[in-house]
Structure formats: C-alpha cells, structure tokens
Input
Amino acid sequence: MSEKSASRKADPLHAGTLAKGIRILRAFDEENVSLSLSDLVRRTGLEKSAAQRLAHTLHVEGMLEKDPVTRRFRPSHAWLQLAYAYYWSDPLIARALPRLIEFSRRIGETVNLAQMSGDHIIYSLRLPNQRTHFGASIVGRRLPAIATAAGRAMLSTWPEEEVDRAIAEWPITAMTPKTVTDRLAIREDVRRGAQNGYVITRNQMILNEVSIAAPVKGMDGRAEAAVQVSVSGHAYEEARIRAEILPFLHDAANGILA
Output
C-alpha cells in the first residue's frame, strides 16, 4: 500500500465511495473523451461491478452522458457548470482577464494564464490568435510543469529547496524529439529565470514553437501563476521576442497581483 493510500485509509473523514466516483470522472481526458464500461475498469482499476454502479449513478445524477446505442459514457454539460463556478470563485481570473486581453491585442499572439496544479501547470485562461489550433484554445489542459516555460517561471520564484525537490521528483515527458529531459539543464534554466524574470523554451510541447513566460508574483514574491506567450519559431528569433513581446509580457504579469 502506498503512503498516500495509507494516509487516506487512516482518515476517518475520507469517503471512499465518493473518491472512487471521482476516479471515474478523472478517467476522461483529451485522449479518452468517450469510454465504455470496460474502458472505465481498465483506466480506474476498479472492479467491474463497482465501476458499473458508479458510472450509472453519475449518469443518473447528470454528470455523465450515456449513448443509448453504444452504451459509452462521456462528460456532460454539468462539467461546464462546475468550470463556470470555478471561474467566479478564483479572484485571480477576474484580475488577469482584462490585462491579458490588452496584452493579446498589443502583440497579436496567443496569450495564456497558467496556474500551478500539483506537479503540473493548468491553463486557466487562453486568448488564441487566428493561427491557433483547437487544442491550444481550450482551457483546462494540464502539462508537466518542469517541461514548460510557465512552470519554470513560477518555480524560479520559489525557495531553493522546493525547486531542487521539484526538479528531482516531478514528472517530465518527451513531447517532441527536442524536449529537454535533462534535469540539470532544467534546473539551470530555472536559475536563469530567477535572474532574468522570465523563461524561454523551444520545441518542448510542439516542434518549432517558442514559449516565453513571466511569473505572476504574490505579495510574498512567490508565484503560483504565470503569463505565457506561444509564437512560431519560424517567425520569431529570440532578439525579436525580447524586443517586441518581453516588455509587454512584464507589464501584464506585473499588473496582476496574485
């Protein structure tokens, strides 16, 4: 039994059945938008009878849609209602949105607000330009934090011991043939980010994509969010990014008090 599992089992307030239901919901992602009962069993590790009862209950309660012919499940509109509630609950979103709209209009490129979510970042605001593909315009996408400019920019404001632990332990996946997986190189990039106030990455998530991010700092100087811009490596050299994007990036990030 893992340490986390043991901790949950010892917690008298932890509702195991509810936790299993959440496992059903978390089985869905961008690559698994429609799942059969056998898919749910495989992805959650639950017994078939338990998965069946939980999926049925979530369907009856409106959290899952069920195709009457294929009997496959998919997320319902209720998930959008939860996202709507989240947006109203997070004051950072309200502060950031007008700044990001102004920033996007100034530079004419894709602008994102990323927040730290465990050992991943999650995009909570995305303002695409006309060239952006569908996947890059949808909020809620999670990526390994240390593989991204936004994640490294946030980490650059954290205490040294926390950064060292994150670089050593957090996951990283090679999304392209040029994704940097050398943890020492990533640690050095975070150090440069602390000195410069921004981080630039290339070819990490998509080939020929360049990302630049600056941290959104709180009153204590620590960042749990970052403003990030993605541009084409064919159109932008680093000198152009620094001249045309970086000043406005700093203005936007510094204007949002986390």
